[in-house]
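Incident log, support desk, overnight shift.

02:14 A customer reports that sequence design results differ from what the structure should imply. Their input is reproduced verbatim below. On-call engineer (initials T.W.) acknowledged and began investigating.
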């Protein structure tokens, strides 16, 4: 391994760590948006409630997937080069 390759390793690890962290924060943001979408006042029309609940659960599931994906990738060793 040359010196150029060995100096690039910490940069790649840092870039990968930042990408993982941003994906986790994005997932948490999607989950928060899902919870906000699920907060429907009682006087809301039935059709609007259905759309908001469907959107809320889709955001929750997508956010959970995005937040947990980096953890599973690390645990299974799939993210290593």
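02:41 Re-run completed on a clean worker. Output:
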């Amino acid at each position: 391994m040359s010196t150029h390759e060995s100096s690039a390793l910490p940069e790649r690890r840092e870039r990968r760590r930042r990408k993982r962290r941003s994906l986790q924060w994005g997932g948490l943001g999607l989950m928060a948006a899902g919870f906000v979408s699920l907060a429907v006042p009682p006087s809301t029309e039935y059709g609007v409630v259905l759309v908001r609940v469907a959107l809320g659960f889709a955001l929750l599931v997508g956010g959970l997937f995005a937040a947990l994906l980096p953890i599973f990738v690390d645990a299974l060793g799939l993210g290593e080069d």
